[in-house]
Design goal:
The chain is an alpha/beta fold. The protein folds into 2 domains: 179 residues, HAD superfamily/HAD-like (Rossmann fold, 3-Layer(aba) Sandwich), CATH 3.40.50.1000; 77 residues, Orthogonal Bundle (DNA polymerase, domain 1). The chain contains 12 helices and 6 strands. Strands 3-2-1-4-5-6 form a 6-stranded parallel beta sheet, sandwiched between helices. β4, α9 and β5 form a beta-alpha-beta unit. α1 packs across α5 and α3 crosses α5. The two termini are 28 Å apart. The protein binds magnesium ion. Magnesium ion binds next to loops.
Amino acid sequence: MNFVYQRTYRGPLKAVILDWAGTTMDYGCFAPAVVFIEVYKKFGVPITMEEARGPMGAHKKVHIREISKTPAVAKRWEEAHGKPPCEDDVDAMFKDFVPMQLKVLADYADLIPGTLDALKEYRKRGMKIGSTTGYTGEMMEILQAEAKNRGYVPDASVCATQVPAGRPHPWMCIQNAMDLQVYPMEAIVKIGDTLPDIDEGLNAGMWTIGLALTGNEMGMTEAEIKALNAETLASKRKRAYDRMARQGAHYVVDAIADAIPLIDEINARLARGERP
Ligand SMILES: [Mg+2]
């Protein structure tokens, strides 16, 4: 046969899948970071904020393991304990991490400014709202209750423990698509604040938007960002944009509210027959 015929989805976006900390709540993604620092301190190996934030976006136990593999942390661990960190150490730290994290979650549950406006715009376009996270189910119970009190109720929420593996794998997104009963995957857009968020969206075959100013890349509160001088802000912001663009994000914007016009832009691209 000399010709083949290819089916192309030309309809609009049907759903958005949002990350939690750093994307819709907890502006600087502090809740997990401060507890990782606390738990490593408890185990006699102080870590820096940068080391604590490195693997952000992963399931929290995977995150603890990844920190322990950081060469500088592994070295300090060996100095403190006489042997390199092993899986038993990761288990012990995660066991302590869980109640410590549960205790502080509500303190960092305020919605990021613009979140409710963005949700309203997505709904106006007929989109369903799903969510994925590196938090566990019991952590999400607390956060979802806090979010509901603040007016945010997604249509679906999936955490890493409900699927074979968390980010960077696509399963949480695919489970969201099933729960929301939405397809094809190119009719869905993922928004998140970490590099594993971007991997997750791309691996699921979805449009993917990175957030550079809110969340883990800047790792600062809104007030701290406002207090930066123009030069420092520009260089930090550029670093975050570059890192997310290099990870393959279709778009990078400052915060969730800035993604609203991108929905219309992606819809136009879909109508032209483009795919993520
Ligand atoms: Mg996040």
